[in-house]
Each structure stands twice: as C-alpha cells, then as structure tokens.
Amino acid sequence: MADIRNNFVGIKSPNPFWLASAPPTDKAYNVERAFKAGWGGVVWKTLGEAGPPVVNVNGPRYGAIWGADRRLLGLNNIELITDRDLQTNLREIKQVKKNWPDRAMIVSIMVPCEEASWKAILPLVEETGADGIELNFGCPHGMSERGMGAAVGQVPEYIEMVSRWCKATTRMPVIVKLTPNITDIRYPARAAKTGGADAVSLINTISSIISVDLDNFSPEPSIDGKGSHGGYCGPAVKPIALNMVAEIARDAETRGMPISGIGGITTWRDAAEFLALGAGNVQVCTAAMTYGFKIVEEMAAGLSNWMDEKGHKTLDDVISRAVPNVTDWQYLNLNYIAKAKINQDSCIQCGRCHIACEDTSHQAITNMLDDKRHFEVIEEECVGCNLCVNVCPVQDCITMEPLSAGVLDKRTGKKVLKKYSNWTEHPNNPSKVAAE
Amino acid sequence: MAGKQLDDGIVSGRLNTKALDENFSDLHPLLDNHEALVASDRCYFCYDAPCVTACPTDIDIPMFIRQISTGNTIGAAKTIFDQNILGGMCARVCPTETLCEQACVRELAEGKPVKIGQLQRFATDEAMDQGKQFYERAKESGKKIAVVGSGPAGLACAHRLAMHGHSVTVFETRKKAGGLNEYGIAAYKTVDDFAKKEVNYIASIGGIEFVHGKKFGSDIALKGLKSEFDAVFLGIGLSSVNDLNLSEKDPEGLDDAVDFIAKLRQAKNKTKLPIGRKVVVIGGGMTAVDCAVQAKLLGAEEVTICYRRGQDQMNASLFEQDLAAAKGVTIRHWLQPVKIKSSKGKVTGIHFEYTQLQSGKLVRTGKKLKLEADQIFSAIGQKLTESDIGSDKNIKLSGGRIMIDDEGKTSQKGVWAGGDCTDRGEDLTVTAVAQGRDAAESIHRSLSSGKAK
Ligand SMILES: Cc1cc2nc3c(=O)[nH]c(=O)nc-3n(C[C@H](O)[C@H](O)[C@H](O)COP(=O)(O)OP(=O)(O)OC[C@H]3O[C@@H](n4cnc5c(N)ncnc54)[C@H](O)[C@@H]3O)c2cc1C
Ligand SMILES: Cc1cc2nc3c(=O)[nH]c(=O)nc-3n(C[C@H](O)[C@H](O)[C@H](O)COP(=O)(O)O)c2cc1C
Ligand code: SF4
Ligand code: SF4
Ligand code: SF4
C-alpha cells in the first residue's frame, strides 16, 4: 500500500488532504466531524482582530453555475472571515488540536496591515498549540475594501513586509495564501519567499459575478435587489489554479518553495494533478461544501490505489513530477506532428467533429463518402489541433496519432524530421537564435 | 374483483370509473422542467442531424432541443410549429422508435435515444397552454380553397394556406374536426380532449371555415368545388374498412376495430362501453394493437391478437408490441382466420389455420387452431372506395389510393391530395401533416403564378 502520509513544512498529517479555510472549518463542531471523516488537516476559518467580529450579510451569500443535471460546476460567495468572537475560536482550536494531535491544525489570519496588529494576534494563536498559520491575503470581497485580504495580496511589498513581521514574531511555520486576482502570480510568490515565508498556498477565490437575475437586473446572489462581486471557486477554477501552481513551481526564484495547492479539487485525480505540478499537499473547500466530508474517503483511497498501480511508494514520488515538463511555448517541438484519426467502429456519426473543423478550423473532416454519411480526417488538411477530439462525444473515438520520423506529412508534403526543433530557431522567427 | 369483470358475453361496466380513469391516463406524462433540462442536455446538436432526416416534417430537432436547454421553451415551440403545426399531436402519437429516435445517434451509441417526442411535447404544450400564436395571416389574397377532410393532412394544409392569406373552407362529414386524431388515436395517447384543443389552436389563425356534415362524393361533387374554389385539396383519409369475408351475415360480436376505437374515443362515460370477456383481434398493425390494448383496459379478461404473418412483418412497432404485452395482451403469429363460430347469432369462437412462408409466399399449413371468443375485432386495414371520391374518373388511383406527385398534385388539374388517401400516405399522422403542408405550398405557388385552374 502506498504511503500517503504528508509532511508539509514540518507539519505532519496522515494524508495530504486539508480542508481550506472556509465555512467547513469555522467551528469545532465542523472540524471534529471533518477529522472523524478522515481529513488530514484543516486551515481554520480566517480569524480577525480581537474586538467586535465582522458581520455577514443576512441574505444569500452564495451563487452557483450548474451542469444540466444540477451538477455544481462553480460556486461564488460573498462571505467574510469568521463572524465569531476571537476568544471562542481560539478556545475551540486549542480543544480540537488536543483531541486530534495527529491532524494538522493551521490557523488562517487576517488583520490590518500594521505590525502591531500582527504582533498582537500571533501569540494568542501560538498558545492554542496550532501547527502553523496561513496569512489570508486572498479574500477578494468585503475585506479587501477594508485594506485587507486581496488588497494586501495584490501588493508584493506588503506581502513581503507582513511575512517578515510574522516570521520574526512566531515559531510557527508561515504559509502565505495568494490571491489569483493579479496579472502574474510569480510576483507575490517571490515576495512571500523574500519575506521569509515557509510556503505559499493558492488559489483563493477569483473575483466574479456569477449571474444576473434577468427579471430585476440584479447581480446574484441578490441582496435586496443589489449584488456585489464575490469569490469564485469549485471545479471551474481548477485549470486556473493548476497553472498558477505550476508557474510558481518552475520559477527560478521560487522553485522548491513548498506549495499547498487549492482550487476546484474534487477528486483524487484533481489532487494528483496538483501534486504532480508541484503542490506539496492540497486543500479543499467547495467539494466538501457540495458533498459533505465523506468525499475524503474517495480522495485518499483513489490516490493510494493509483499510486499502487503506478508503483509510487510515497507522495514524494509524485510531487513535482510534471514540473520539468511544463515549458514555454517557444520551446515546444515544432517537428512533432500529429494527425487526428477517427475510429469508425466507435463513431456514432453525430457530425460534431466535421462541423467544428469545417466551420471554425481547417476543413479537415469529411461528412460524406460516396453519398453516405461518413466522417473521416483528410490528412492533407489536418493541422492536428485536437479540436475534434475535444468536441467528440465518444471518448477515445478520435485519437491524435503522431507521425513517426521519415513519414510524409501530407499537409506540407514534407517528411517528418526526427530532430527536435523549436520556435527560437525557426526561420520565420524574426529574432531566432542561430541553430548550432 | 369488481362484480361484472368475469361475466361472459359483451357487457359494460366490467371496471369501475376509478380503475378506468387510471387505465386510460396519459401514456407518457409531461416531463417536468428538470426532466426536460436533463433530457435536452443529452442532445449533441448533431451536424446534419440524422433525426431531422428521419422526421417526415423535417423539424429542426437539435435547434428546438437546444432552445429547451437554454430555457427558451416558447422559441422551441415555434421551431417545431414552423415545420409542423400539429407538432403537439405528433409528439404524442408518432412512433418515434421507428422515426426520429431510431435515427438518433444516441440510439446507435447506447440504445438510449434523446427523448425527442417527449421534449417536443414539453415545448408545444407550454406554448399551447399559454395560447401563444406565432403566425399571422398574410394580406388577404382573395383566393378561395376547398379542403376536404379535417384530419392531420387537411388541417396542416388549411393552416399553411391561411398563413399565406388565402380563405379556406374545410368540408368534413363528421361532427367533429380532427380526423383520426379525434376518432382513431388511442385514448391514452391523447388525453384531456387534446385533439379538439389542437384543432382550435390551429384554426385560431383565422381564415379557416369549417363546414360539417357534408360528404364529398355524394353531398358535394368535385365539379362543383372546382367551379366555386380556386383550388381543391383532398385529405379524406381511408374511410372504408377491409372485410374479413368469412361469413354471409355478421354475427353479433364481430366488430370493426376502427368503429370500436371511435366509439371509445367519443364515450363520455367508459363504464357504459360494452366489451367481451374473451376478445380476439385480427390484424398486425397499429389499429390492431390499439384495439387490443384498449379492450384490455376496458376490462376484457383475455385479449389475443392474431396475425397471419410473423413478428417481423407486423406494422405495429416493437414499442407498440411491447406495450400490448405489458398490458396483458397476447400476440400470436402465423394464424389465418378461416371461420367465425357463432350460436344463436352471437360469436362464440374463431378457427384459424396456421400459415408459413414458402418461397416468399404465404401458404396455409393445414394445421388448425380454435379459440373461444365472445367478441372478435377485425383490424385488417382501411381502404378508399370509388364512392369516397365520387367515382370521378379524372382522378387517377394507384394501388387503390389517389395518385399524387412530389408536391401533392393529383392527375386532375387544380386538385391536390395528401395523407392516408394518397399512394404516398404511410398511415402516419406526421406524414399526413407533411403532405398537407407541402400541398399548401404547392397550391400557393400555383395561385401566386395564376396557374391553378
Ligand atoms: C386506430 C388507429 C390508430 C392510429 N394510431 C396512430 C398513431 O399512434 N400514430 C400515428 O402516427 N398514426 C396513427 N394512425 C394513423 C393516423 O391516424 C393517420 O395516418 C392519419 O390520421 C391520416 O391523416 P389524414 O388526414 O390523411 O386522414 P384522417 O385522419 O383519416 O382524416 C380524414 C378526414 O376526412 C374526413 N372524410 C373522409 N371522407 C370524407 C368525405 N367523403 N367527405 C368529407 N370528409 C371526409 C374524415 O371524416 C376525416 O375527418 C392510427 C390510425 C388508426 C386507424
Ligand atoms: C464561503 C467561502 C468562504 C471562504 N472564506 C475564506 C476565508 O475566510 N479565508 C480564506 O483564506 N479563504 C476562504 N475561502 C476560500 C477557500 O479557502 C478556497 O481557497 C477556495 O474556495 C478555493 O478552493 P475550492 O475550489 O476547493 O473551493 C472561502 C471560500 C468560500 C466558498
Ligand atoms: S485535429 Fe483539428 S485540423 Fe485536424 S481534423 Fe481535428 S479539428 Fe480538424
Ligand atoms: S464527433 Fe466523434 S462520434 Fe461524432 S461524427 Fe465525429 S468522430 Fe464520430
Ligand atoms: S440525432 Fe439525437 S443527439 Fe443528434 S441532434 Fe438528433 S436528437 Fe440530438
């Protein structure tokens, strides 16, 4: 059996599945249930300063998009940080950590961008026996209007500064949670590293308006006829999160810095992809909010079964394995040539590949042969773009077949070359480097 | 068990009202919103979709289903009605398993086609319930057209002509309009007086006048119509039935299936409808199945369909056969009726001889079968007789039906025809609609170019 125990910046947990800081981790009641269900750790719902807690709206705080059978694809929220008293939270954190010593207990914090505020709260958190802290620089709504959350996360200098304050004040590992609402994720990640943070976690939610009520023209969720932007999460954001994780994992300045991967993780497979792209563990919110805590069973079993099947013994055999294969476009091999091929036995003749290629691409798929409905790739025209594969409703019906070296590419009339060659040395590139 | 259920002979009230209501309820209840959304999401929006090719009225199926999936149900209804103004009835009665749904790529892929018929009903019901009218008449053309018969063919033709601004007079011998929609289709396929609602919906475009009680061929002659109207359309269906030819004088209990169904469709109170305890239905088409199933639903204890050929040759689709079996009807094959047994003028049984195919020809084998019966229905097909078209020798027949060309023109100038009465009819509602509509377009083209008469 594969060993899926996790060690993230020295914080140990029985598996790499943590619950992200959000409603599932807002109270002892929830977290106790989560640990019973098998979650490896939690990031406690973000704490604010001592004093009167923030208040949430009293109307709907979520909106969603769904597939046809109401499968939830994306969730949007306008919730703020915890609206419970600081002392209550601290007391509960301490008790739960005591009850579950083998689970990771991370505390998410968001206080004003002043050294005194951070210095005030860190000892209180440390006293609970928590394993680490996560700085919430990501919340895109509400808190950012008050100069916290994403308002800090969007300014690398602030990230660096606050990270430094924290590292100087506490023994606990510091994880900086990044906002995706920024042009280049590498800058805040670099700032966290420079400030001495132990790790980054990402992504927080993406600024979004999920839908508009077309009867009263209010954005949704609608609070008395008005709406404000919220944070987007769930399956729909996974590709964005994966890219951002990979960007940090392969950046020269941040390479090797531990990453806690977050964003749309719903199954073991999603988790494995994050690990492969450089995440040291993963955090989950929406999937748990959609299906309840039990899903962690599928995630843990699925990951471990897959690792067994592939012969990966520990998480370290998986983590970052895909990172060397993430490259810039300019280094992709232009001599690699693939053509679509339709398996006539599994084709159900829906014609989607044809119309997609015909209307919007390269006119490379027939719709008739000898007056009969028939879909076949015209190799002379196929540029190998993969669109037909993506629109075909039958899995594996269309495959992309690479041409081996020496074979004639009927589109260009040239033989496929064995040699790797990329854009940097291509004759059409005005700034090409001379090939050696 | 209810009191009269096991009584011998042909008696009414075998089942009580509650049981009958349940038996004759909607075969496929309307999809709810969520079901429709899920069903519509299964459509792949195929290119040059095979389902459209398979629909005799060429409804843009992927388009209307996509409209349903985006919440534009009313738009979906318009897409359907643009091609088929009887889309509501077709959604209920089309044997989709041999038409659009058989062609659906998901039938090929996994044996589970998109529920095209039920989605069509979802959209058209919504529009009709809202009384949504999509079509306005073009400017009055001053042209008058006589449509004979108010079945699906006549109605589709009349609607399209009215749309083009022509004035239409529909001549119908029966009391109600709708043809077999009103008098023939199985009751559980068209509940709540839908046929009548549909006629009203179609007629509300305006410009269509109904004249009931006049029979073409006897009360009205083609010649008269031709002089009074600019064009004539014949959609008279097949109003005569084939004869079993087994007895000189028909004993009591030997009945015609089409008549039985018509009575059933018109009955206000089904507990008053008499039905046998042991019923035999002769035939292998949709009428035989509908007759047998409804006999069973009325409370007959044993219902057997006897068909003289094999299962593969049955005109009733596999779905219809399964439906019959599910309702408790027995279907027997390779049986040719040879003698009706009766006593004191009442049916007591029927004798069959087994048949088989010998080098492509159906022959008797000499082996016999006797079945007891107190009621026998003949469902061996309808036909057109000379008198139905007023023995007008100028209208050429082919195979006993009116010969038409691609556009619906008969051999007689100025006279079009469509539906079951023509040699291109397929005994399907939807085909009748397509032919009525296409004939209307042809008439319109002729009238616009001034060449009809
Ligand atoms: C019992 C039964 C069940 C069926 N079930 C189905 C089914 O489930 N699905 C399906 O697709 N099809 C079914 N069909 C077939 C379908 O009903 C017909 O194909 C369709 O109705 C044909 O339409 P039509 O307009 O050509 O003729 P009809 O519907 O027969 O209409 C002809 C009209 O003309 C009138 N008429 C006839 N002669 C004259 C005259 N001389 N003068 C004036 N008016 C006249 C008639 O009264 C009638 O109203 C069924 C048929 C029967 C008999
Ligand atoms: C209702 C809600 C409240 C959230 N509150 C917080 C929060 O207080 N602090 C925080 O760091 N992230 C918060 N998040 C963001 C999540 O922790 C997580 O980063 C995000 O939802 C992406 O992961 P997912 O796709 O698995 O949901 C919240 C998310 C949701 C849905
Ligand atoms: S790979 Fe692209 S170009 Fe080739 S057939 Fe498919 S859609 Fe057309
Ligand atoms: S999209 Fe797939 S199933 Fe449809 S016609 Fe093309 S190859 Fe066949
Ligand atoms: S064939 Fe089936 S999947 Fe394709 S368009 Fe028609 S209904 Fe949709």
Give structural notes.
- The complex is a heterodimer of chains A (436) and B (453).
- In chain A, strands 3-4-7-8-9-10-15-16 form an 8-stranded parallel β-barrel, surrounded by 7 helices.
- Chain A has helices spanning 28-37, 86-99, 115-127, 150-153, 156-169, 186-194, 238-250, 268-276, 286-291, 295-310, 352-360, 387-391; strands at residues 6-8, 11-13, 17-19, 41-47, 62-66, 72-77, 104-109, 132-136, 174-177, 199-202, 206-208, 211-213, 218-220, 230-233, 259-262, 281-284, 338-342, 368-369, 372-373, 398-402, 408-409, 414-415.
- Chain A is 28% helix and 19% strand.
- Chain A has 436 residues and is an alpha/beta fold.
- In chain A, helix 8 packs across helix 10 (295-310).
- Chain A folds into 2 domains: 6-325, Aldolase class I (TIM Barrel, Alpha-Beta Barrel), CATH 3.20.20; 329-435, Alpha-Beta Plaits.
- The radius of gyration of chain A is 25 Å and the shape is globular.
- Chain B has 453 residues and is α/β, with parallel strands linked by helices.
- Chain B has 3 domains: 4-24 and 241-381, FAD/NAD(P)-binding domain (3-Layer(bba) Sandwich); 33-129, Orthogonal Bundle (Fumarate Reductase Iron-sulfur Protein, Chain B, domain 2), CATH 1.10.1060; 144-239 and 384-449, FAD/NAD(P)-binding domain.
- Chain B is 35% helix and 19% strand.
- Chain B contains 17 helices and 17 strands.
- The longest helix of chain B is centred in the C-terminal third of the chain and has 20 residues, at 429-448.
- The A-B interface holds A 67-70, 348-352, 354-355, 367, 373, 393-394 and B 34, 37-38, 40-41, 44-50, 69, 105-106, 108-109.
- Bound molecules: flavin-adenine dinucleotide (FAD), flavin mononucleotide and iron/sulfur cluster (3 copies).
- One iron/sulfur cluster binds at residues 340, 357, 361-362, 364-365, 377, 382-388 of chain A.
